[in-house]
Amino acid sequence: MSNQLLEAGRQYWDLTAETYDQVFPETLVGRAMRGAVWTALEQAFQSGQRVLELNCGTGIDAVHLAERGVRVLACDLSPRMTEIAAQRSVANDVAELAVFRAIPTEEIAQLIPEGPFDGAFSNFSGLNHVKDLSSVARDLGQLLRPGARLLICMIGRFGAWEVIWQLAHRNLKGAMRRLHPQFETPKMKAYYPSVRSISRAFKPSFRLLHWQGIGIAVPPSCMEPWARRFPTALKGMVYADQWLTHCPGVKGLGDCVLLHFERLPIAQ
């Protein structure tokens, strides 16, 4: 990514940082979807391990793992995001376990001298704003020890709920935006690779173990007003997602996909 694009991204996310938690993490929909990812993170990473987080935002996931004894080095493009994240870690008394750095994903190779890590993860849409996933995969291959787990959550190619909602509001462009490999707004670019494309980008350093859908029955964030109006229905959808998350033919309809990788042995 060019320096100009990186700087534009920093400025955008620095401004977004001030209200980011209210826009998604603290919403009913955001909590429901994050809870599903937390279940996977808790299974993948154990107390005492040292893991790397990409696109950490305001540090919600890093602090959650730190409270369970996992040491996290969390990075984000936005200095303001990492400042808020550091404040969160202090407030939750895990500052020694959750450390934050203002490092763009495209520049994580600078952390190689601090490796190897026991695992890594990126939650929600951070990697959807990275054009060259193969480059990120090469860097992570040098940062993670053989056998380490890598969990990547990204916005999927087809979110059924979002399509239905946007079409109901006569927004054809919004309904179809993910079907294009690249979606651009005046503020940023987003990319929507398929699961197959993501898996291919992370070879040969990583093996895809399995993947699951996130937010299949649970509606997307654009339906937050509906979720607040019908909280009991949302709880039922959360329960349904627990059954649908690994269901073939259905899991690809989720708002996000969560891919589970394993770092392969280093070739001799």
Key structural traits:
268 residues; alpha/beta; Rossmann fold; 7-stranded mixed sheet; two-stranded antiparallel sheet; 11 helices; 40% helix; globular
Short description:
The chain is an alpha/beta fold and about 270 residues long.
State the secondary-structure class.
alpha/beta
Number of domains in the coordinates? 1
Shape annotation? globular
- List the strand order in the largest sheet: 3-2-1-4-5-9-8
CATH topology value? Rossmann fold
Major sheet attributes: 7 strands, mixed
Q: CATH architecture, please?
A: 3-Layer(aba) Sandwich
Write the CATH homologous superfamily: Vaccinia Virus protein VP39
| Ends apart, CA distance between termini | 32 Å
Beta strands, count: 9
Describe the structure.
The protein is α/β, with parallel strands linked by helices and 268 residues long. It has one domain (3-263): Vaccinia Virus protein VP39 (Rossmann fold). Helix content is 40%, strand content 21%. The protein is built from eleven helices and nine strands. It has helices spanning 3-17, 20-23, 28-44, 60-66, 79-91, 133-143, 160-168, 172-176, 195-201, 224-229, 231-244, and strands at residues 50-54, 71-76, 98-102, 117-122, 144-155, 182-184, 189-191, 206-214, 256-263. The strands form two sheets. The chain has a seven-stranded mixed β-sheet. Strands 6-7 form a two-stranded antiparallel ribbon. The two termini are 32 Å apart.
